[in-house]
């Protein structure tokens, strides 16, 4: 199937100065997509918002009329973002490929097409070249996968990953605005000595941990879908179908920003110092902020004593677009293995910002 924008690779092609953009869905992720498009000054001539009902929404002080989603709304537009929530199925199943047929490039935050062979699954800092053969439809990975591959891709390039064991500690914002409001209400109830109610999860989330995100995946006995997404998506993004990945995903009483512990084994040995040097280099590790910084007031080769508490935490990442990495140390129990800890804003880098960065890459490379 041929798509008009794929011919724009030719030497005579001219890059547009402005693009007509649609955002489908105006919940937490959709609203953030609009905000990030404006913040990053994406060359949008117009931003149209579609949802299930007509209304007006205010985002970052601007009022946006919201129209009811319909395939005809995509006519005359260049680019469409489908929001979704933490990989949920969504409007892209109804309108995504129809929009492509109408000449619109689609960037989808939903889970439905991530493993589709036709569809690139892209984190720009990691595999932007995968965009070259896009057929008009591009998928945003799951939030927890995005921050992990941003942190690990530089190490993969340096020493080739063989095995990843990840545990995630995922904020309630990943579920949506209702879950965030429920956590806040449960905290107030606890403080008032009341028994909290709950609807969003299988148990109260305040002062609790829930080792279940999404439903069980029948193809991976005992694993929930959030965990198997990390397995399959990581292999696709890093281009290694045999990479060994095991994940345990836990919902925690944090408002925003996911955290992850990462245990990785590499083919070639990397010391903790070498890993720090790689992850602390913006050219080798774009999008990463190392929070294991050397103390420049002392010896430049001496790293901060862990007792000085210089490591990432969720509030550090809240409202930011980077992945913060620290607690880097050599695993005492396995050969060529490292332990790391990383945090990232799951609504921004884990969804909206990554999608906008994909669009920026398409524009920069003249692939749209």
Report Rg. Answer: 21 Å
SSE arrangement, N to C: EHEEEEHEHEHEHHEEHEHEEH
Distance between the termini: 16 Å
Q: How many distinct domains?
A: 2
| CATH superfamily grouping of the largest domain | Dihydrodipicolinate Reductase, domain 2
The number of distinct helices, counting runs of at least 4 residues, comes to 9
How much helical structure, as a percent, in the residues? 25-40%
CATH topology of the largest domain: Dihydrodipicolinate Reductase, domain 2
Strand-residue proportion: 15-25%
Order of strands, widest sheet: 3-4-2-1-5-6-7
CATH class of the largest domain: Alpha Beta
Question: Which secondary structure elements does this structure contain, and how are they paired or packed?
Answer:
Blueprint: E1 19-24, H1 28-39, E2 44-51, E3 55-59, E4 62-68, E5 79-87, H2 92-101, E6 105-110, H3 124-127, E7 137-139, H4 143-159, E8 161-170, H5 177-191, H6 225-238, E9 244-251, E10 258-266, H7 272-279, E11 288-290, H8 314-317, E12 323-330, E13 337-344, H9 348-364
Parallel strand pairs: 1-2, 1-5, 2-4, 5-6, 6-7, 8-9, 11-12
Antiparallel strand pairs: 3-4, 8-10, 10-13, 12-13
Can you walk through the features of this model?
The chain is an alpha/beta fold and 368 residues long. It folds into two domains: 4-141 and 351-364, Rossmann fold (3-Layer(aba) Sandwich); 145-346, Dihydrodipicolinate Reductase, domain 2. It is built from nine helices and 13 strands. The chain has helices at 28-39, 92-101, 124-127, 143-159, 177-191, 225-238, 272-279, 314-317, 348-364; strands at residues 19-24, 44-51, 55-59, 62-68, 79-87, 105-110, 137-139, 161-170, 244-251, 258-266, 288-290, 323-330, 337-344. It has a seven-stranded mixed β-sheet with strand order 3-4-2-1-5-6-7, with helices on both faces. It has a six-stranded mixed β-sheet with strand order 9-8-10-13-12-11. Strand 1, helix 1 (28-39) and strand 2 form a beta-alpha-beta unit. Helix 4 crosses helix 9. The chain is globular, with a radius of gyration of 21 Å. Residues 4-12 and 298-304 have low confidence and may be disordered.
């Amino acid at each position: 199937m041929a798509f008009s924008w794929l011919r724009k690779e030719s030497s005579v092609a001219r890059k547009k100065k402005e693009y007509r953009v649609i955002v489908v869905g105006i919940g937490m992720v959709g609203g953030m997509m609009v905000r990030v498009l404006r913040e990053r000054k994406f060359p949008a001539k117009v931003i149209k918002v579609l949802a299930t009902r007509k209304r007006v929404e205010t985002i970052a002080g601007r009022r946006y009329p919201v129209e009811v989603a319909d395939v005809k709304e995509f006519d005359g537009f260049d680019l469409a973002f489908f929001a979704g929530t933490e990989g949920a199925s969504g409007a892209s199943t109804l309108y995504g490929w129809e929009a492509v047929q109408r000449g619109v490039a689609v960037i989808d935050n939903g889970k439905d097409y991530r493993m589709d062979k036709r569809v690139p699954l892209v984190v720009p800092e990691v595999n932007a070249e995968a965009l070259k053969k896009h057929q008009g439809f591009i998928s945003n990975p799951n939030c927890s996968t995005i921050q992990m591959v941003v942190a690990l891709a530089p190490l993969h390039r340096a020493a080739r990953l063989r095995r990843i064991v990840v545990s995630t500690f995922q904020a309630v914002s990943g579920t949506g605005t209702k879950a965030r409001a429920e956590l806040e209400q449960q905290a107030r109830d606890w403080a008032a000595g009341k028994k909290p109610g709950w609807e969003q999860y299988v148990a109260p989330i305040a002062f609790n941990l829930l080792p279940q995100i999404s439903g069980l995946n029948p193809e991976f006995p005992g694993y929930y879908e959030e965990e198997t997404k990390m397995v399959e998506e990581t292999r696709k993004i890093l281009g290694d179908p045999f990479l060994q990945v095991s994940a345990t995903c836990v919902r925690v009483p944090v408002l925003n920003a996911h955290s992850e512990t990462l245990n990785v084994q590499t083919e070639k040995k990397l010391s903790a110092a070498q890993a720090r040097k790689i992850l602390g280099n913006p050219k080798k590790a774009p999008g990463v902020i190392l929070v294991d910084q050397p103390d420049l007031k002392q010896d430049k080769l001496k790293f901060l004593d862990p007792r000085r508490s210089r490591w990432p935490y969720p509030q550090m990442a809240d409202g930011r677009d980077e992945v913060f990495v620290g607690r880097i140390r050599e695993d005492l129990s396995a050969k060529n293995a490292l332990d790391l800890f990383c945090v990232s804003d799951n609504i921004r880098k884990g969804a909206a910002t990554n999608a906008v960065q994909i669009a920026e890459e398409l524009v920069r490379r003249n692939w749209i």
